[in-house]
Amino acid sequence: MSVVYRVALVLVIIGAINWGLIGFFRFDLVAYLFGGQTAVLSRWIYAFVGLAGLISIPILVMRFDEDEDLDPHTRIDRNPSYGMEIGEEADFTEVKTTEVKKVEKKDSHNKNKNKK
């Protein structure tokens, strides 16, 4: 989620808390803190909270991919990945050691022939 949406959500939460206080207790926290409802600073805060509400509308339909558990055999766009589903990944460390062993066997075999 981008920084703009996070800031907008914080402002929307502040507005929701203020409306809750107005509804339950008839107390306008923004007006109390910033000099009344008609004060310039209070009106700016009300305006920013209103803009934040408009900016937050796309969040209703936004997909939050980071919150979903994705199957490890699928890509982010949910198309299947057939990379290694059938078998296990090859262990290349064993291949290298067998090649070294073959070379060692050939060397030891050649040394035995040379001794005879």
From TrEMBL:
Q: Which organism is it from?
A: Lysinibacillus agricola
Query: What keywords were assigned to this record?
Result: Membrane, Transmembrane, Transmembrane helix
- Under which name does UniProt file this protein? DUF378 domain-containing protein
Stored InterPro entries: DUF378 (IPR007211)
- Taken from the record, one Pfam family name reads DUF378
The answer to whether keyword Transmembrane applies is yes
- The reply on keyword tRNA processing is no
**What stretches pass through the bilayer?**
7-25, 45-64
